[in-house]
Amino acid sequence: MIPGDNINNFTLFIVFCFTAMIQLFYYLWFYLAPSLYRSTEKNESKAPVSVIICARNEAENLRNFLPSVLEQDYPSYEVIVVNDCSEDNSYDVLGHLLMQYPHLRISSINKDPKFTHSKKFAQFIGIKAAANEILLFTDADCQPESDKWLEKMTSNFTGQIDFVLGYGGYLHENGFLNKYIRYDSMFIAMHYLGMAIRGIPYMGVGRNLAYKRSVFFRNKGFGIHNHTISGDDDLFVNANASKLNTRIEFGPGTHTRSVPASNIAEWIKQKQRHLTTAGFYRIRDKFLLSLEPLSRILFYTLFILLVSSLYLWPFVISVFGLRLIVQITVLALTEKKLNERGLLLNSIIFDIFSPIINSALYFSTFHNRSRRTTWK
How confident is residue 159, by pLDDT bands cut at 50, 70 and 90? Predict the structure, then answer.
């Protein structure tokens, strides 16, 4: 007869193996997909494009980064900057750039104390002002990695493609926080790019996203999500993208790099704002997104319990080692693909704590929902 402790340990061992299988499934099916992905048919027609950037009090960023968007190697495009209630010298910066770049367009929203709005309204103004069918979005604090960004992103609009999802990373800087921000951005990309490749597109990032103007108006703009603070990028994709109308692009020179948060408080505020949209995803997407971090927490917890009790420890360590080898391999390939070098060792450490951090920040958004949320 098996003693009670052994029965309990055996149950824990079975659950541990099951969580390891879930982890291996995500790594080998979703997370490995971007590293193995090879783009197919491209559109060589170089159709006219409208680049849309919303900016509020972004004078310094506009001065530093907007020229890299205005100097793209592309024959026909306009850059629309929606200057949304700025109180700094954004008007002066844009006026100076307007004299240098004739394809720059400016739409201004004046401040009205009786009317407050989210970034979605500024985005809508930019889309309304756009002259072209293909829209490419980025932020004022972003810069493309090359002057081929616009060409390579828009070349994916072939046939029935309505959405093109790109990668938006962060500038490489010194410090532990910068490494975590870059890891977090990369891991999110492993999710949404991998799931899109497998026919389950569920989000995009507004730092590097393209879709058709007609799709926006055919689906009544931001629709049922218009009341949310965020979601001008991920919720619109979640509601309207599909296996048949979506492609991804993250080849060399197609990434954008943004200015990372300079301190933990700023990063927490940004992260909380992003997490407010998660509850509006489709049920299938919420299940797939929650299953992985939950299984990861269980995996690490059960590993510690089983090793500390020495129950079948050679098998436990072997299962842990297999998952670790797959994890390191996939992370190394992804870092190379997304040009996020120097994160591998930190990523292994961050992997243990990130689901706990994200869960805490997600549940904290419920407490803060009644408070006023900033535009960005």
Answer: confident
Coarse DSSP helix, strand, coil percentages of the chain, rounded to the nearest 5 percent: 55, 15, 35
Q: Distance (Å, rounded) from C-alpha 206 to C-alpha 232?
A: 7
The DSSP symbol for 281 reads S
Put the strands of the sheet holding 49-55 in their side by side order. Answer: 104-109, 77-84, 49-55, 134-139, 209-212, 163-166, 246-249
Contacts of 75 (CB under 8 A, 6+ apart): 46
- Is pLDDT at 4 greater than 60 in this prediction? no
Report the phi/psi class of residue 311: left, alpha or beta, with left for phi > 0 and alpha for psi in -120 to 50.
beta
- Asked if the structure places residue 7 within a domain, the reply is no
- Residue 200: which domain range? 40-281
Task: Let me know if residue 53 belongs to a domain.
Answer: yes
- CB-based contact 74:134 (threshold 8 Å): no
Count of domains for the chain: 2
Mean pLDDT of 147-157: 97
What single-letter amino acid sits at 238?
N
> CA nearest 237: which of 212, 203, 269, 205?
203
pTM over 0.90: yes
DSSP, collapsed to helix, strand or coil, labels residue 76 as: coil
What are the backbone dihedrals phi and psi of residue 51, each rounded to the nearest 5 degrees, phi first?
A: -95, 130
Q: What is the CATH number of the domain that holds 110?
A: 3.90.550.10
- Contact in structure between 120 and 90 (CB atoms under 8 Å): no
Asked if pLDDT for residue 44 goes beyond 70, the answer is: yes
Q: How confident is the model at residue 3 (pLDDT cuts 50, 70, 90)?
A: low
Q: How far apart are CA 55 and CA 139, in angstroms?
A: 7
189 CB-side CA count, 13 A? 32
E-strand ranges in the chain read 49-55, 77-84, 104-109, 134-139, 142-144, 163-166, 168-170, 209-212, 246-249, 256-258
- Neighbouring-strand partners of residue 80: 52, 105
